[in-house]
User: Which sequence fits this backbone?
């Protein structure tokens, strides 16, 4: 069974700080998703990556396949970045691809 | 703009009532999913569907059923609601990748169900 762990569970920072959220998994995967959930419920897909690094605006996602670890970075953080960030890994088991979800990291950015 | 629409944002039902949660996507996606989300537990897959009239159990299907009569619509049914089904329910859709992989996921806004 693949275990997905996110750290930290909660993170509070000041506006402008550089933010790092981590995701580790235990078994080799085919891809990893980073998603964002704002208060109120809706979830938005940020990145899907299987190697290297992706960047979109102030968000950067990296993955190290050998170390089974991914990070989501936010540069120049802003209060509107306050949300829950969720990592999910896609892996092949029992003749099917499955998504295993992390519990999420709650980020609060204070003005 | 891609869109996944869930019929109700907030519902309050009584124990034993039948509950329908509707989800419609306008992206012609084959894959559709129903998840529930509870504090500290993350997302848990209830049912998913890879095609019309096709359904597969997820991790926690007990107490739920689903219907996919049309490609764009995936319904979650609680035959007899119970208090432990109070939760946030999230619908998602995606295109299929090769060999049944799940591509980028698109979520609805969620339906918060309270069962009294």
Assistant:
């Amino acid at each position: 069974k693949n275990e997905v762990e996110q750290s930290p569970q909660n993170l509070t920072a000041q506006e402008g700080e550089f933010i790092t959220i981590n995701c580790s998994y235990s078994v080799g995967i085919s891809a990893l998703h980073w998603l964002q959930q704002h208060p109120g419920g809706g979830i938005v897909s940020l990145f899907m990556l299987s190697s290297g690094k992706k960047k979109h605006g102030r968000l950067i996602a990296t993955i190290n396949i050998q170390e089974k670890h991914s990070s989501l970075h936010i540069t120049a953080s802003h209060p509107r970045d306050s949300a829950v960030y969720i990592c999910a890994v896609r892996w092949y088991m029992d003749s099917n691809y499955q998504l295993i979800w992390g519990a999420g990291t709650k980020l609060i950015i204070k003005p | 703009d891609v869109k996944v629409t869930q019929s109700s944002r907030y519902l309050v039902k009584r124990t034993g009532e039948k509950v329908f949660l509707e989800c419609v996507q306008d992206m012609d996606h084959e894959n559709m999913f129903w998840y529930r989300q509870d504090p500290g537990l993350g997302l848990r897959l209830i049912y998913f569907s890879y095609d019309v009239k096709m359904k597969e159990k997820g991790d926690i299907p007990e107490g739920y059923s689903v219907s996919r009569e049309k490609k764009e619509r995936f319904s979650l049914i609680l035959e007899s609601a119970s208090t432990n089904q109070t939760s946030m329910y999230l619908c998602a859709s995606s295109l299929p990748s090769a060999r049944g992989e799940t591509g980028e996921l698109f979520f609805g806004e969620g339906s918060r169900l309270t069962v009294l």
